[in-house]
Amino acid sequence: MSAVVESPAVAEQATGVRIRDVHKTFHRKRRPGRAALEGVSLDVEPGEFLCLLGPSGCGKSTLLSIIAGFTSADSGEVIVGGRAVTGPGHERGVLFQTPNLFPWLTTWQNVLYGPKARGVLTAEVREEAAELLETVGLADARDAYPHELSGGMRHRAAFARVLINHPGVLLMDEPFGALDAITRAGMQRFLLELWQKRRTTIVFVTHDVEEAALLGDRVCVLSAPPGGTKAVLDIGLPRPRSYDDTETLEFVQAKRRIREVLER
Ligand SMILES: Nc1ncnc2c1ncn2[C@@H]1O[C@H](COP(=O)(O)OP(=O)(O)OP(=O)(O)O)[C@@H](O)[C@H]1O
Ligand SMILES: [Mg+2]
């Protein structure tokens, strides 16, 4: 994977996310509804890297999906870049645990899908797509189909497909959860470099305390189901960060602080 290149053509406008008293209950046939979120409030600053952590079923994916506009809240509001979220939008880039590439399109076609669908597929966009594929180390795989790519390559292709849309905020739901340890460390390094260059706002869901401490400026811990905000911790470790930092005393202390909140 090559280093992330800085290009004026990809200087996104980082946007803030304001979440106010969001409630969500999933209704089920002939059974009582199941509350997923009970009064979540949170502000994510423009350019901030925020990790969302909490036990399984506490509503992390539901919250991300509400910010993305795929799911609507029962009450409360989500404001992204000053506008209330009413549905999905390309200014919010979403990456899931399983990269959702179109299997019938090549890497190149997948990356160009968004601009094409929006009718903005210019020579400049094609040039940027080529640069992005270079950046994510997939220049040689541009004509390959998703089934011909490794797990890590698919993730990087999905990244490029989202980044071409210049999202002001990246919403990531355990994106590296299914990867092996080495590929995962590579993707974390890539994401840190990318964020260091572009300062796109990131909301990153993870189960992993170490991943949260390595990546986040702050870590928001959601409580056991149904989720509410339990605590928001400032990580305070210096930037730029790298995997080597995980061996420092400060890093171990940050992990301990997160664990204490999780366990209380
Ligand atoms: N579409 C849905 N229909 C019904 N219930 C749902 C739906 N999506 C989520 N839920 C319920 O809402 C709660 C929160 O689910 P969610 O997927 O947001 O949790 P999570 O924190 O992401 O968990 P995990 O860490 O396991 O991914 C769970 O009880 C789940 O069963
Ligand atoms: Mg989830």
TrEMBL record:
Its EC number is 3.6.3.-. Keywords: ATP-binding, Hydrolase, Nucleotide-binding, Transport. Residues 17-249 form the ABC transporter domain. It is an enzyme of class 3 (hydrolase). The keyword Phosphoprotein does not apply. One of its GO terms (molecular function) is ATP binding. InterPro entries: AAA+_ATPase, ABC_transporter-like_ATP-bd, ABC_transporter_ATP-bind, P-loop_NTPase. The keyword rRNA processing does not apply. This is Aliphatic sulfonates import ATP-binding protein SsuB. It comes from Actinomadura macrotermitis. The gene is ssuB_2.
